[in-house]
Design a protein that fits this description.
heterodimer, A: 176 residues, alpha+beta, three-stranded antiparallel sheet, two-stranded antiparallel sheet, 5 strands, 14% strand, elongated, B: mainly alpha, two-stranded antiparallel ribbon, 12 helices
């Protein structure tokens, strides 16, 4: 009978809400309690270094090109050994949307996101991070990877001089 | 002459006391409602200002007072400015006839613990609750906004249709007390609260008083997901605050009315009568907050249907039944 169903449907919610009244709230009281985000959380962006301590960034502009809000800018320069680096590197965090596309574009794993989400500031200019603010000592998520050990033709090592490479093929020896 | 002066001072003291207590209760009911609703939804509710959020009402008042008092273009200015006060005033005035304790003897003088023990107290409360509709209707009309007008129309229709059931639900109470005076009604419940004597009347009363006070689940006049905020859409600052505070004073008044009519007023063991009265009022207020956390809002036509086709016949039946039973018991 519908009447019985209606009465039950009217009284049951009261029982449910009373039950919830005595449960512990799920709220995290932010300034006092802080959530630990997962390691792959996309928050503050950093520039990481190689395991040997040299900078990973080769100023290829790929992150800057991938960035949908154009918040990354840099100036490329070349060291004496022919290795490229960023003369200056700037991320405007007031514009950044933390999409992580820059980290996907980066061929050298230099630019990475970290779980540090507390970067808000009252002064908007303090949100513009320069290279020295961005650069960290560690390797970030991949502690092994070193771009110039696998690629970077003839810049640091001779052509084919890397461990997992063989030398240039002599095209004449391949003739039938 | 001296006697008159003392009576006057006593009345003023009682008025001040009631005003202070009711306004404080209304302010803290807002906080209590927000906290209880929060806990029902697994949140904390306001807990930042003062210990446990206890200073929140004060901050709300400061916020409302410092906001702009805005009158919409082409609104009916004077009625617009006057309407919120009417709602709050009608709610406050209802408290004049509510007895909150048996008479106290002080310096050999018997002081009734009620501002004015009218012999038609019940009718007085009904009159004032009907008057409160004017605040809603005039506010909604004067705002010059379609949402306000819709809210006002809904409020009017709803209040008129539920007042009938409300009045009929109280007829058995009056029959068993043989008086319209609230004091006599409480006195008649010395051994049995009316809740046990007239359970059906209690249920009808609670449903129609919810509709009368425009609280969830019957908050159609201010249904925020259909008509923005209903009759107080255009109000800002302390004028909105008056509507808001009027609603919570109304909650206290409803708690007092339910206590007086059905829960036996100040009667209760062990504790002093005033404490019993306040505890019962708070309990009824909790019931209303609980209902707000539990119930969805019905459709408008369902509300009207329920009022006219279910509650009023049921209330009439209840009047006949209670009359017959009390006649059978007494003879």
């Amino acid at each position: 009978m519908n009447l019985w169903r209606d009465i039950k449907g009217t009284l049951q919610p009261f029982w449910v809400t009373l039950g919830y009244l005595f449960k512990k709230p799920v709220t995290i009281q932010y300034p006092e309690e802080k959530r630990t985000p997962p390691p792959r959380y996309r928050a503050r962006i950093v520039l990481t270094c190689n395991p040997d301590g040299s900078e990973r960034c080769v100023a290829c502009q790929l992150c800057s090109a991938a960035c949908p809000v154009n918040c990354i800018s840099m100036q490329a320069a070349e060291a004496a050994d022919g290795r490229r680096y960023a003369a200056w590197f700037r991320i405007n965090f007031s514009r950044c949307i933390f999409c992580g596309l820059c980290t996907e574009a980066c061929p050298t794993m230099a630019i990475q996101t970290t779980p540090d989400y507390e970067i808000c500031n009252r002064d908007v200019l303090k949100l513009v991070h320069e290279k020295e603010d961005l650069l960290i000592d560690g390797c970030g998520k991949d502690t092994e990877y070193n771009f110039y050990e696998h690629s970077g033709i003839g810049v640091v090592n001779e052509r084919g001089g890397n461990e997992d490479e063989y030398g240039p093929v002599d095209p004449k020896s391949l003739l039938p | 002459m001296n006697d008159l002066l003392i009576s006057l001072v006593l009345i003023l003291v009682k008025l001040g006391l009631i005003l202070g207590v009711v306004l404080t209760m209304a302010a803290y009911l807002v906080l209590a409602e927000r906290k209880i609703l929060g806990r029902m939804q697994l949140r904390y509710g306001p807990n930042r200002i003062g210990p446990g959020g206890m200073m929140q009402p004060l901050c709300d008042v400061i916020k409302l007072l410092t906001k702009e008092d805005f009158v919409p273009d082409r609104a009916d200015k004077w009625i617009f400015l006057f309407a919120p006060g009417l709602t709050a005033l009608a709610a406050l005035l209802s408290f004049a006839v509510v007895p909150f304790s048996p008479p106290v003897t002080l310096f050999g003088r018997e002081i009734p613990m009620v501002v004015c023990d009218l012999n038609i107290g019940l009718l007085y409360i009904f009159g004032l609750s009907s008057l409160a509709v004017y605040g809603v209707v005039l506010g909604g009309w004067a705002s010059n906004s379609k949402y306000s007008l819709l809210g006002a129309l809904r409020g009017l229709a709803q209040l008129v249709s539920y007042e009938l059931a409300l009045g009929l639900a109280l007829v058995p109470v009056v029959m068993s007390a043989k008086s319209f005076s609230l004091n006599a009604i409480v006195m008649a419940q010395a051994d049995w609260p009316n809740l046990l004597r007239h359970p059906l009347a209690f249920i009808i009363f609670m449903i129609s008083i919810t509709a009368e006070s425009k609280r969830t689940p019957f908050d159609m006049p201010e249904a925020e997901n259909e008509i923005v905020a209903g009759y107080h859409t255009e109000y800002s600052g302390m004028r909105f605050g008056l509507f808001f505070v009027g609603e919570y004073i109304n909650l206290v008044v409803i708690g007092a009315m339910t206590t007086v009519f059905f829960l036996g007023g100040w009667h209760g063991p062990f504790l002093p009568p005033v404490v019993w009265f306040i505890l019962k009022v708070l309990f009824v207020a909790f019931l209303f907050i609980w209902a707000r956390g539990s119930m969805p809002r019905p459709r408008y036509d369902q509300l009207m249907h329920f009022g006219w086709k279910v509650l009023i016949p049921l209330a009439l039946l209840n009047v006949v039944l209670s009359g017959a039973i009390s006649l059978a018991v007494n003879s």
